[in-house]
Design a protein that fits this description.
Blueprint: H1 7-18, H2 22-29, H3 33-42, H4 51-58, H5 62-69, E1 85-91, E2 95-102, E3 108-112, H6 119-127, E4 131-136, H7 142-145, H8 148-154, E5 159-161, E6 178-181, E7 184-190, E8 199-204, E9 213-217, E10 220-221, E11 224-225, H9 232-243, E12 251-254, E13 260-261, H10 262-268
Parallel strand pairs: 3-4, 4-5, 9-12
Antiparallel strand pairs: 1-2, 2-3, 6-7, 7-8, 8-9, 10-11, 12-13
């Protein structure tokens, strides 16, 4: 799976975050404005930018930005370590991930978002003879919950968990709630900034001591981060404090793009 954001996307997002104009960024990079626009549009380096000067202006890490330019991607994870865990990707105008976990013994399951279409997740639930007990929402942007009605129609008693202020009180998360799914434990951390109801879910206590799994929505992507629709500063601060403080082997499972780890993002994500 390709990175959600290429080099050009990263630079464009960083310019928006720092409120830097294209002419100023082009000057720092040693490019014409047309060359910078082409770089942002395609992600392809035709003329080598001055990465240290550009990164300094945009508040990025220059070494990590060059790593992205050279084609870095996170190591592909062997998800068989987490045998009751699935990443499911659906595509409309673009691809969106959702995630399904379950307890091997009880067959109780939890779904995290739906992506554009819940059909693939519901098919796995049927094939594995699971009972969907919990539906966790990372944030309520349409591309992440488009299949929610289908989920509720199939499982009318599913328990919904969200930080949306408009949700009924019984569905709203409390900080540090711990939900048990058989032997698994699911807790939550606020990761607002991209969305005002942004939440990261931490799944722990896997068999064979497999590392924790963090379902992060659009708070962070491999090599990038979600747009700061609410606040760039808050979004970045929340990722630093709530996600990158987790153990380095923790899986980062984003709403778009490939799975990564905390360690890989700390080492390679130019926003951090």
């Amino acid at each position: 799976m390709n990175l959600e954001d290429n080099l050009g996307d990263v630079i464009r997002k960083a310019r928006a975050m720092s409120n830097i104009s294209a002419p100023d960024a082009a000057k720092a990079a040693g490019l014409t404005e047309a060359e910078l626009n082409a770089l942002e549009d395609t992600g392809t380096v035709v003329k080598q930018p001055n990465f240290p000067a550009l990164a300094a202006l945009l508040g990025l890490n220059a070494t990590k930005l060059e790593t992205i330019a050279k084609g870095w991607a996170p190591k592909k994870q062997d998800l068989s370590k987490w045998c009751e865990f699935r990443q499911i990707t659906t595509t409309k105008d673009y691809a969106v991930n959702c995630y399904l976990v379950w307890d091997e013994i009880s067959r109780e399951a939890a779904l995290f978002d739906t992506g554009w279409d819940a059909t693939p997740a519901l098919k796995i639930i049927e094939e594995e003879k699971l009972q969907l007990k919990h539906f966790f929402i990372t944030h309520t942007h349409e591309d992440h919950i488009a299949g929610m009605d289908a989920v509720r129609a199939k499982f009318p008693n599913v328990r919904i968990h969200t930080s949306a202020k408009s949700a009924p009180p019984q569905q709203r998360l409390r900080n540090n709630d711990c939900i048990h799914l058989g032997s698994l434990r699911i807790s939550n951390r606020e990761t607002i900034g991209h969305a005002e109801d942004g939440v990261t879910y931490i799944i722990g206590n896997w068999s064979d001591d497999a590392p924790h799994v963090a379902i992060v929505g659009d708070a962070i992507f491999s090599g990038s981060m979600g747009k700061g629709n609410q606040s760039w500063d808050v979004a970045r601060k929340q990722v630093r404090e709530q996600i990158l403080t987790l153990p380095p082997e923790t899986l980062i499972c984003p709403g778009h793009g490939p799975i990564s780890t905390v360690g890989e993002e700390k080492a390679n994500n130019p926003f951090f």
